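Q: what does this look like with zinc ion bound?
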Amino acid sequence: MTAAAGTSAVEQLEALGVGGILWQLAKDGQIVDIRCEMPQCYCHRGRRHFDPRPPPSPSPSPSPSPWSPTADHYPRLKKHGGHLTPDNVRLGHKLCNQLDYTWRTQINALLGKKMSLDAIAAHLNAKKVPNDPRHEPVDGFLRSKGIRFVGAALGRQADAHPD
Ligand SMILES: [Zn+2]
């Protein structure tokens, strides 16, 4: 636990050097808990630990810590026309965000090539792409069932997915 109890979300974000959409959401009461919202969090200090962003100046500014806060375009990726609006943003660690993005774009690209789900699974397994945590690994390997789940999560709204 690094966040002091009683500190508001806005104050926490300001202490981390975060402005923009995340700050606005916190100010509007739409972020009440400063934690990494990625499906898988890789931070060994936990979802609630964040390193401050480096100040914008002097340039060149040091590159941000992997555990600095970022605003992720979700569920609609920026490359698909998504904007950082209140309905399309989630807070995450920089590194967790990057890994999630890599996963989503790789699956998207393969779906676009009309590869079957089994072929995609085989392709990703051959490249040793880490399994996505949103589904249970089967023998440590990616299976087509998982791909289907990810495909649904990528904008095809998995409403009919009871869980
Ligand atoms: Zn994280």
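The first strand starts at residue 69 and ends at 73. The chain has one domain: 9-153.
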